UniProtKB/TrEMBL annotation:
Organism taxonomic ancestry: Eukaryota, Fungi, Dikarya, Basidiomycota, Agaricomycotina
Domain of life per record: Eukaryota
Gene Ontology terms, MF aspect: heme binding; iron ion binding; monooxygenase activity; oxidoreductase activity, acting on paired donors, with incorporation or reduction of molecular oxygen
Name under which the protein is recorded: Cytochrome P450
InterPro entries linked: Cyt_P450_sf
Signal sequence coordinates: none
Organism encoding this protein: Wolfiporia cocos (strain MD-104) (Brown rot fungus)
Length: 120
């Protein structure tokens, strides 16, 4: 019985340590972002940033931000993550043509494949 208790306690401690480590990584991500010095609107909410505003049907936020902050700016996503917003055609061309540098995450690849299908 005591061995089982020690095992459960060890597993609980390992799980708690992992959760705290992941939470710390999420909370410190904005401070290490390469986009942190770009101008952009202040976040509307600490959890979902500008995502609620961007999901509205009559959304013109991107156009207003480009007019206000210039052709390249940032806005906030989930948990304060920085998201690049650019209307600079040279920057867009560079990003599209250098897929080895600007790789999509597994999640973004999955969502793209669901929406657009797999290319072969």
């Amino acid at each position: 019985m005591f061995v089982l208790f020690k095992l459960l306690l060890s597993l609980s401690a390992a799980l708690a340590t992992y959760v705290l480590w992941r939470l710390l990584a999420i909370l410190t991500r904005p401070y290490g972002s390469t986009l942190r010095d770009l101008p952009g609107p202040p976040p509307l909410h600490w959890l979902y940033g500008h995502l609620r505003e961007l999901s509205s049907h009559d959304n013109t936020s991107h156009e207003i931000w480009i007019e206000t902050y210039g052709s390249t700016a940032k806005y906030k996503g989930l948990l304060g993550s920085d998201i690049l917003l650019t209307a600079d055609t040279r920057a867009i061309s560079h990003i599209i043509n250098h897929t080895d540098i600007y790789q999509k995450s597994e999640y973004n690849r999955f969502v793209t494949s669901v929406v657009l299908g797999n290319s072969s």
